[in-house]
Amino acid sequence: QVQLVESGGGLVQAGGSLRLSCTASGRTFSVYTMGWFRQAPGREREFVASINWRGGSISYADSVKGRFTISRDNAKKMVYLQMNSLKFEDTAVYYCAQRITTWGSWGQGTQVTVSS
């Protein structure tokens, strides 16, 4: 079992940037796909990005392509989400998750608020 803790959220103006970090503890990290999701008030949690264990397979939601970049450092047990050109609609709680058979081991989330 892995425990995930997100950090790096905050308040930023539209057009700005933030870098989210996800710290993992536990042994089962490096071999599994990791991902970022987000949930805005009144909306379902949605997929943002994922990266496989070697970093060779990366996926993004259409809404963030070209603006967000996911990366990982297996030695440090970290996953990152670099968010550029932020928009008001990016405002949400961002969660880190691990996929074994399904997505799980959700962290507590970090709030990202983009002011227009």
- Taking pLDDT < 50 over at least 5 consecutive residues as the criterion, the unreliable ranges are none
Order of helices and strands: EEEEEEEEEEE
Mean pLDDT: 94
Q: Looking at the structure, what is the overall shape?
A: globular
Structure in words:
With 116 residues, the chain is mostly beta strands. It is built from no helices and eleven strands. It has strands at 3-7, 10-13, 18-25, 33-39, 46-51, 58-60, 68-73, 78-83, 92-99, 103-104, 110-115. The strands form two sheets. Strands 2, 4, 5, 6, 9, 10 and 11 form a seven-stranded mixed beta sheet that branches. A hairpin with a 6-residue loop joins strand 5 and strand 6. The protein is globular and about 40 Å long. The mean pLDDT is 94.
Essential attributes:
mainly beta, four-stranded antiparallel sheet, 116 residues
